[in-house]
Amino acid sequence: MPDTAGVRAFDAARADRPPTAPLALPGVTPLRPSGAFSDLRYLLMGRIVPAVLYAVLGYEVIVNAIASRLSPVNWLTVVGGPVREGLFAAFCLIPVVLFVVRPKPQTADVRILPRVVAFLGTAILLLCGTGVGGGMTIFAVPAWVGTVCTVVLVGATAGAVWGLLTLRLSFGIFPAARSLVTGGPYRLVRHPLYICEILSALVMVISSGRLATIALVAIFCALQVTRIHYEESLLSKSFPEWRAWAAGRARLIPGVW
After folding, report:
1. Which residues are CB-neighbours of 161 under 8 A, at least 6 positions away?
2. Per the count of CB atoms within 10 A, which of 21, 74, 86, 159 is most buried?
């Protein structure tokens, strides 16, 4: 999912500036507010299609959660079942509202490759989150490892929801610059939403032990790292303040990268 981090506090200062012509930046396309075709395309691809996609996935998660049966009923099955499923449903349904009400971005990277990478990264994450069944099992984990994985997965899903609620109207799938956000988990790392998603994906690998899941997660992690490159390039060109903010924190893991 796109994790366009930045500094909302700068919005007020930017709002006081006189209107200027759209930015002319290498690799960045400024989006103009007028034009029937532009408005129609954004309505379709920027609002309706992603909102419907996330709504369908959220509905599927809710239906599966209602149909599931806890056996046995204890803290682990409750946390790993209804609690985790409720958080993932929120992760799917919150963007439905955001896609409908968010403004058009100031600038966007409209090149084909960054958009394909963003779309595939989002699709694989949601596919893994709704459950990838079948395939060859190549290893099994002890019960205690499964317990740890369940707790970590719930924590990572909660962190992803926190990231969404912090991004709010800056959230999107494709690389775009709406505003900069540094509150909440963005005080710690540049891309908290991505680290929570990657952590969730890695936990799925450990807990399932299935070859299909491992392959999907490996592709997913590579796509997310690539998305970070594209998004940071766009942010650094669109917001002069971004470089100073980014210099004070790691992309994903403090002290590592």
Report:
1. 87, 90, 91, 94
2. 159
Distance of CA 252 to the CA centre of its chain: 13
Q: Within 13 A of 45's CA, how many CA atoms are on the CB side?
A: 11
Helix (H/G/I), strand (E/B), else coil: 210 = strand
Amino acid code (one letter) for 88: F
Q: Is the pTM of this model over 0.90?
A: no
* Cα atoms in the 13 Å half-sphere on the side-chain side of 9: 9
Decide: 192 and 185 in contact? Cβ < 8 Å: yes
Domains and CATH numbers, the chain: 10-16+29-246 (1.20.120)
Q: How many CB atoms lie within 10 A of CB 120?
A: 15
All residues at 6 or more sequence positions from 100 whose CB lies less than 8 Å from its CB, including other chains? 47, 51
